[in-house]
Structures are given as structure tokens and as C-alpha cells.
């Protein structure tokens, strides 16, 4: 159902939603600070 809503055009690139246990939640966009930490964590996990 979630994918069907996207195909109908309900969500666009600027829409930040997350499907958690069958419920849709509006999410705030990822900021540069958060993105930097995620990138660093991914790097650390890949080298070990």
C-alpha cells in the first residue's frame, strides 16, 4: 500500500515520511550535521 501511494504521486522528493509498524510518520529532513555523523559511522563500521 505504501508503494502504491508513492506511485500515485502522494509523495515527492521533498516529502520525508517513514513507515513504522504500518503507520506513516512525517519526518524532518536530514541536516548536514546528522549526515556527517552517519557518513563517519558507516566508514568506521566498514573498515572493521
From TrEMBL:
This is Uma2 family endonuclease. The lineage of its organism: Bacteria, Pseudomonadati, Pseudomonadota, Gammaproteobacteria, Chromatiales. GO terms for molecular function: endonuclease activity. It comes from Thiospirillum jenense. Keywords: Endonuclease, Hydrolase, Nuclease.
Amino acid at each position: 500500500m505504501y508503494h502504491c501511494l508513492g506511485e500515485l504521486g502522494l509523495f515527492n522528493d521533498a516529502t520525508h515520511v517513514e513507515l513504522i509498524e504500518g503507520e506513516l510518520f512525517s519526518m524532518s529532513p536530514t541536516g548536514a550535521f546528522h549526515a556527517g555523523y552517519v557518513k563517519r559511522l558507516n566508514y568506521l563500521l566498514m573498515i572493521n
